[in-house]
Amino acid sequence: MIRQLKESLKANNYNEAVYLVRFLSDLVNCHVIAAPSMVAMFENFVSVTQEEDVPQVRQDWYVYAFLSSLPWVGKELYEKKDAEMDRIFANTESYLKRRQKTHIPMLQVWTADKPHPQEEYLDCLWAQIQKLKKDRWQERHILRPYLAFDSILCEALQHNLPPFTPPPHTEDSVYPMPRVIFRMFDYTDDPEGPVMPGSHSVERFVIEENLHCIIKSHWKERKTCAAQLVSYPGKNKIPLNYHIVEVIFAELFQLPAPPHIDVMYTTLLIELCKLQPGSLPQVLAQATEMLYMRLDTMNTTCVDRFINWFSHHLSNFQFRWSWEDWSDCLTQDPESPKPKFVREVLEKCMRLSYHQRIIDIVPPTFSALCPANPTCIYKYGDESSNSLPGHSVALCLSVAFKSKATNDEIFSILKDVPNPNQDDDDDEGFSFNPLKIEVFVQTLLHLAAKSFSHSFSALAKFHEVFKTLAESDEGKLHVLRVMFEVWRNHPQMIAVLVDKMIRTQIVDCAAVANWIFSSELSRDFTRLFVWEILHSTIRKMSKHVLKIQKELEEAKEKLARQHKRRSDDDDRSSDRKDGALEEQIERLQEKVESAQSEQKNLFLVIFQRFIMILTEHLVRCETDGTNVLTPWYKNCIERLQQIFLQVCGKLWLDNKHWSSQPQRLSIKNIIVKFVRTLCSTHSPFQFMPISPPYCCSSECLNLNSYYATEIPNCHFFTLENLSVI
């Protein structure tokens, strides 16, 4: 088992390793393993905290493995080796006091610690173990079937564990990310049922660990998972429903990403409501109310997940909710978290139903927060549009589209459209002409507005026209602008059309990013659908790079196999095959470099635009003497943080755009906290597939290689050197 433990650690299977350590610990209670050898192994675990030039998260894991095993074996070890255990505890306490905790704000669900503190996981576990020690290692929730056979097991031959040396740190080591413990309930929330263990009670740790383990084991089968959760042993001694709901929301809101896909938690809660219709829905409603009341301090990413879960959940229960209880949002600033949340929930519900149904389910007083009717806005469709430039061409295009005109016929109609940006007729053909794009896109999308399929067919049929009109960067941006004007009231249609345009290469990812940060979208900048589009765009870019890289690696492996066969068997025809493969590899290499350049440009655009709009906001507030900390500013800062946490594998830093004024530190601190968090993990960034690092100089921050463990001393990372390029 020690060999298996080492193999698990070398293979970065740290969850499996934790369970192995706990199993070995429980074998001490069965008198199978001698207590002194277990103490020696724990001493080696804690000795990792003395290692130099290793990431903090490595040290964190070994301390966690030690502390999390003590509920099972702490009493036995302290009875037999109290002096040695005191020494290990002293070393552990010393480490916990000196370790960096700058990652905590990035991983907290709420910025406020009231009513429940959001503690870092090692600090919380240490407090729980300290209380357990004070209570003389008495706990009531760990199943110990071997106690029935203690009189027999105590006479068994005990074995000493072989000496265990933690595997050394390597560049391939991928350690678990740090966490913040999610707390939503305490004993006051269920005054009539069993008392909920306190946050620093080891019983709380054991119960939550077991529930997390059940979800991890059965998450692919929601019915089985729900049945296992409600059948938790000892459920009569605890308010089980409160624990289950808290654990599920803890995983759903875990930052930077939940352990499983978001929809799993929705379906699991639905199954739980079906299994216990008389109790769990009430607890879930209570939790929803608590989350709503704390929206002001909730992380924006978690608010997004809350919106997606709640709307999906309502769609499975006929959209029934006591909306009048949330009428306080009607008197607040529309940009405040509560009215924005209600608006986004209703919009998501409309995607899962239809507009009139949503209008009918909410009280008339909520009409201001209801989504607009998702109809197409065609600017050339009424009589007042006769004087608009391009109106006559729009009529001709409409007739041509209905007559199933070819691309050449469409080009012929658009040829006579004047270019408002061009003073002289220099016959530049189909260079960027905003009026051509506007007339063509408006008319085509209007005629294809019946369904998603109609719109997709229109894009496919006139793909050549789109590519010609949107040949330049300005053209791509204008196509997106016009599409947004047409479907302004239908966010879902906007999202799917942008997705389709990227897939068909009508627009590129950088154009989408520029459009999202453009002035035309400033009013909708904080809306959820905008950020869904941006994250989808980044994912597509990353997957595209990975796909080409995989093709390149396969071609290289194939060439290597051919070389090996040629060395074993003289085959003249292999020279011709090698030549074809080498040409293919060269082409793929060029594609990889081009894709990586596009990906770099996408990140460049995103971070530059973030810096620009945040700086403009700060300057405007300084000039007007108004408060910087507006709801818009909080949303924007946390969106920047979200991009860092979920999609960034590489940052470039220079000193072009940042001044050293104190007002800019809040923006810089996002970057500081992000880098510190990831530098402490020393693991390749695994939340979003991205291309391997393309290191441009020794001054770049390469998050997929060796991370600096002391950021304050990092040679490139100063507050005057913080501009993403």
Summarize the structure in words.
By secondary structure, the chain is mainly α. Among the domains are: 153 residues, Serine Threonine Protein Phosphatase 5, Tetratricopeptide repeat, CATH 1.25.40; 124 residues, no CATH class. 58% of the residues lie in helices and 1% in strands. The chain contains 28 helices and 4 strands.
Jot down its keywords.
about 0% strand; two-stranded antiparallel sheet; mainly alpha; single chain; Serine Threonine Protein Phosphatase 5, Tetratricopeptide repeat; globular; about 725 residues
SSE diagram, text form:
Blueprint: H1 2-10, H2 14-29, H3 35-47, H4 56-80, H5 82-98, H6 104-107, H7 121-134, H8 150-153, H9 202-218, H10 222-230, H11 240-252, H12 262-275, H13 280-293, H14 300-315, H15 337-351, H16 355-361, H17 391-402, H18 407-414, H19 434-447, H20 452-461, H21 463-469, H22 473-486, H23 491-503, H24 509-516, H25 528-568, H26 573-624, H27 631-647, E1 650-651, E2 653-654, H28 665-681, E3 701-702, E4 723-724
Antiparallel strand pairs: 1-3, 2-4
Helix pairs in contact: 1-2, 2-4, 3-4, 3-5, 4-5, 4-7, 9-10, 9-11, 10-12, 11-13, 12-14, 14-15, 17-18, 17-19, 19-22, 20-23, 22-24, 23-25, 24-25, 24-26, 25-26, 26-27, 27-28
